[in-house]
Amino acid sequence: MRSYRGLIEKYRDRLPVAPDTPVVSLNEGDTPLVELRNLPRLLRRNVSIYVKFEGLNPTGSFKDRGMTMAVTKAVESGAKAIICASTGNTSAAAAAYAARAGITCFVLIPEGKIALGKLSQAMMHGSVVIQIRGNFDDGMRLVQEVAQTTPVNIVNSINPFRLQGQKTVAFEVIEALGDAPDYHALPVGNAGNITAHWIGYSEAVCENTRACAFCQGNCGFHRGRLATRRPIMLGYQASGAAPIVRGRVVENPETVATAIRIGNPVSWQQAVAAKEESGGWFGECSDEEILHVQKLLAQTEGVFCEPASAVSLAGVLKDLELGRIGEGSTIVCTLTGHGLKDPDAAIAQSVQPLTVDAELDAIERVIRERLLQV
Ligand code: AN7
After folding, report:
1. Span from the CA of 184 to the centroid of ligand 1 (angstroms)
2. Percent of the residues in the chain that have a pLDDT greater than 70, as a whole number
3. 274 lines ligand 1 (CB under 6 A)
4. Secondary structure of residue 187 in the 3-state scheme
5. Distance between CA 340 and CA 343 in Å, rounded?
6. Which amino acid residue places its CA nearest to atom 8 of ligand 1?
7. 268 CA to centre of ligand 1 in angstroms
8. What pLDDT digit, counting tens, does each position of 248-268 carry?
9. How far apart are CA 328 and CA 337, in angstroms?
């Protein structure tokens, strides 16, 4: 048996790569689809909820799926440098894949507004970290401007190869479940990922080997049907950064989920199309709801995702409560990033450690007190 060598090798015939394309990979993809055991019971819901734990990719987020493709294609085209604007995870992935490829990486991040783990990754992998006195949307605009005047290759999701890599998550979900779920929920920031999920599901139900309506004529990579249907897509945003839900640009987005602190998403229209074609909807969650569900998931299921990722599950739990999602449904939530990305957010909302003397007595006392409480 050959070991797993990343999503380009696995889905080569469904991706725009040639036999001699120099693949830049860190064995990303193939992430676990974990069924929640305790939460549905706790909430007395007769539903199957699965989480696609994208935090277990090599740099700790789903961005690796897109970055293996974007950097592979950049290197294939002879690029020597890549650039991105980022709320953190894109910069971490870009920095790592650029290091792997031996090319230069520039990242623009909003000063003071990216989680510590992500900043440490961009720095440690040796990218040129440029903090801007502005937000992600400012960075996104600047990256597009500077790419016109300097020889840098943009690896944000306006780069179509990013979405090609990210679409593979849908193939994996279908493989694990045997077909598409009833619902697929995910957090929406710049809206590339929901677009990519929908491309993947759409290609998976297509029997054509040529361009067709599902891919709007853009895709030549159909290789036979993987699923019999597509899921209803649910996109959730943080209330302080919910431009798509509200239907207007948010000038000063604010949320504890810094990954999705985005007010003017690049793939806005494609995200709305995915919602409409699937019969889905967009919803929003407050910071309080997001943190509550992040902690609930960590403490009842042992799955630690970052705040932005918890938005998908928080939205689903709310819509189950409201009866918008029916009993008996199968739901997949994409958990886009690992909880370790944002240690500050985790520590701030947790019970602080006890400090005691290094004595048997002291430890025993803690254990007895604690066990009495239960
Ligand atoms: C954990 O890193 O935009 O809707 O610059 O890091 O495809 O943008 C991150 C986005 C969800 C939203 N969850 O995905 C960036 C960046 C996490 C994220 C999203 C992001 P998109």
Report:
1. 16
2. 95
3. no
4. strand
5. 6
6. 190
7. 13
8. 999 999 999 999 999 999 999
9. 27
Pick from 119, 141, 190 the residue to mutate for probing ligand 1's pocket: most ligand atoms within 8 Å of its CB. 190
Rounded distance, CA 129 to CA 71, Å? Answer: 18
Residue 67's nearest CA partner among 155, 153, 151, 7 is 155
pTM for the model: 0.95
Side chain identity, residue 290 = I
Q: Which tokens sit at 106?
A: 């520039």
Tokens of 29: 């993809």
Which amino acid makes up residue 359? E
Query: Ligand 1, closest atom to CA 190?
Result: 8
Both tokens assigned to 304: 């630690």
Query: What pLDDT band is residue 157 in, cutting at 50, 70 and 90?
Result: very high
Average pLDDT over the chain reads 95
pLDDT at 96 over 60: yes
Q: Taking a C-beta distance cutoff of 8 angstroms, is the pair 185, 283 a contact?
A: no
Q: For residue 169, which of 1, 333, 341 has the smallest C-alpha distance?
A: 333
Ligand 1 centre to CA of 222 (Å) is: 27
Specify whether the CB–CB gap between 300 and 150 falls below 8 A.
no
Query: pLDDT-based confidence at 13, cuts 50/70/90?
Result: confident
Give the rounded distance of the alpha carbon of 352 from its chain centre.
29
Q: Which of 71, 161, 73, 165 is nearest to 125 (CA)?
A: 71
Q: Quick one: CA dihedral 285, 318, 170, 9, positive or negative? A: positive
Q: Ligand 1 mean position to 189 CA, how many Å?
A: 5
For residue 336, the CA-to-ligand 1 centroid distance in Å is: 8
Residue 215 has pLDDT above 60, yes or no: no
Q: Which of 28-42, 177-191, 214-228, 281-295 has the lowest mean pLDDT?
A: 214-228
